[in-house]
Design goal:
alpha+beta, four-stranded antiparallel β-sheet, 4 helices
């Protein structure tokens, strides 16, 4: 095949891999009952006037499956961290004991589990849409090459290859979703 086609196929696969990586990152933020520092990934603290990720102003530990402790590197950051967790609206009620902030991760109700599964399905659907958009862009690029004189057979083979990549990555998304769903629904 031509170099242009090879480049299109490589960049298509890379873009589809990025969709999977984004999905995995999104799934980390959907809590499945067990405490994890990743649950606080969306929390940004006002640190001397700039929004800073919580992990950059404090140590985040998980002493057990239901507790997260946050130990700020500076004592005066206790209140801003507590406020940031409340503002992030992730369903946690932080408790400040003067040294550390303790978060008890409540067990998930059946209704909350179903909501989280819906959220996971939505993230998976977004990933599939991203993958299909990558396929569309690749096929558009292949059509351009065909108009510029690349052989019809080579272009057809490339389109088939793009479709095979798309099918494989859609399967990966489905596998990730099934795993996440099982993790969320496990009591």
């Amino acid at each position: 095949m031509t170099e242009e086609i090879d480049f299109i196929l490589e960049s298509t696969e890379e873009a589809m891999n990025n969709s999977i990586a984004h999905l995995e990152k999104s799934f980390l933020n959907i809590r499945a009952g067990k405490a994890s520092p990743a649950m606080l990934g969306s929390v940004f603290v006002d640190y001397y006037g700039s929004a800073t990720p919580l992990s950059q102003v404090a140590n985040i530990n998980v002493p057990d499956a239901r507790t997260i402790t946050i130990q700020p590197w500076e004592k005066n950051m206790l209140q801003p961290i507590e406020k940031a967790i409340m503002v992030a609206n992730i369903g946690f009620n932080p408790m400040n004991n003067g040294d550390v902030i303790i978060i008890s991760v409540p067990p998930l109700t059946e209704e909350r589990r179903k909501d989280l599964v819906k959220q996971a399905k939505s993230e998976a659907e977004d990933a599939k849409i991203g993958i299909r958009n990558v396929r569309k862009d690749a096929n558009t690029d292949i059509k351009k090459l065909e108009k510029e004189g690349t052989s019809e057979d080579i272009c057809k083979t490339a389109e088939d290859e793009v479709q095979n990549l798309t099918n494989a990555f859609i399967r990966k998304v489905e596998e990730h979703l099934v795993t996440k769903e099982a993790e969320i629904m496990k009591v």
